[in-house]
């Protein structure tokens, strides 16, 4: 039994090492959120078991949780770089499937036809607005920035703290074209990581609740900045050493159990 107990410790230490390595590998990934492994013990018990004689039979993984604490904000000076100063996720729609994913990575670009998208072509979701910049619908949709305004051509695009996307044209005119929609979740730890610093809603996370930047718990928009990874390398290196020692200790326990078994076999022979 000691072999299987130590084997469970080895497997758990290996998972811990992989999670820590993943955190370290993404220390410079924009919008990345670190994870940590939660463990639980296993005990051989039954209704007729004497509680004073119940042996432990190892450990198991209770879950891998993500830490959504705000990462440091870095100024980039690029107008279409957005950071959320507070709670919320950007909503991004796949142009082919329509599937919506959620991200804290605000590195966006403008296509030739005026669509705002991320590096993988997913469309940023926003509320349509009137001439005064007030939302006209509670249902977010793709942002479309008109590349011309009569005879004037698009000069630049700016985004204010309320998330209002404002198009400026060569004739000096300006036009609000949308307000960035932010999503929150009843239980963000239930989100499923989908890669590319994106998450997908699940039954555990609950459905997305959309809101306006700067209102209630939704964070304000900071244009010309990006949210860096919230990984603390010093903290991860300490955790890495601890996980390594844990792995070595369990391996040593298996080695000791092997020696004891060999000694018993030699006595019997």
Automatic annotation (TrEMBL):
It comes from the Bacteria. Keywords: Bacterial flagellum, Cell projection, Cilium, Flagellum. GO terms for biological process: bacterial-type flagellum-dependent swarming motility. It is found in: Bacterial flagellum basal body. Residues 5-33 form the Flagellar basal body rod protein N-terminal domain. Its main location: other. A flexible structure which links the flagellar filament to the drive apparatus in the basal body. It holds the Pfam family Flg_bb_rod. The keyword Metal-binding does not apply. The keyword Mitochondrion does not apply. Residues 223-267 form the Flagellar basal-body/hook protein C-terminal domain. Belongs to the flagella basal body rod proteins family. This is Flagellar hook protein FlgE. GO terms for cellular component: bacterial-type flagellum basal body; bacterial-type flagellum hook; cytosol. Residues 83-166 form the Flagellar hook protein FlgE/F/G-like D1 domain.
């Amino acid at each position: 039994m000691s072999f299987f107990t130590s084997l469970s410790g080895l497997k758990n230490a290996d998972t811990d090492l992989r999670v820590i390595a993943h955190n370290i590998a993404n220390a410079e990934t924009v919008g990345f959120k670190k994870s940590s492994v939660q463990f639980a013990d296993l005990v051989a018990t039954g209704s007729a078991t004497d509680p004073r004689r119940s042996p432990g039979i190892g450990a198991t993984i209770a879950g891998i949780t993500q830490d959504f604490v705000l990462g440091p904000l870095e100024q980039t000076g690029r107008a279409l770089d957005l950071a959320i100063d507070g709670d919320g996720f950007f909503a991004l729609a796949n142009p082919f499937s329509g599937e919506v994913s959620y991200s804290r990575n605000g590195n966006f670009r403008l296509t030739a036809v005026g669509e705002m998208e991320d590096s993988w072509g997913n469309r940023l979701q926003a509320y349509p607005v009137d001439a005064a910049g007030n939302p006209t619908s509670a249902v977010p949709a793709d942002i479309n920035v008109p590349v011309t305004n009569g005879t004037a051509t698009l000069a630049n695009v700016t985004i204010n703290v309320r998330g209002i996307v404002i198009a400026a044209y060569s004739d000096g005119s300006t036009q609000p074209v949308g307000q960035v929609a932010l999503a929150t979740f009843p239980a963000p730890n239930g989100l499923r990581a989908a890669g590319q610093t994106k998450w997908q809603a699940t039954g555990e996370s609950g459905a997305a609740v959309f809101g306006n930047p700067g209102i209630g718990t939704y964070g304000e928009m900071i244009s010309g900045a990006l949210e860096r990874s919230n990984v603390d390398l010093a903290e991860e290196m300490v955790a890495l050493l601890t996980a390594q020692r844990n792995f070595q200790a369990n391996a040593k326990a298996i080695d000791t159990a092997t020696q004891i078994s060999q000694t018993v076999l030699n006595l019997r022979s």
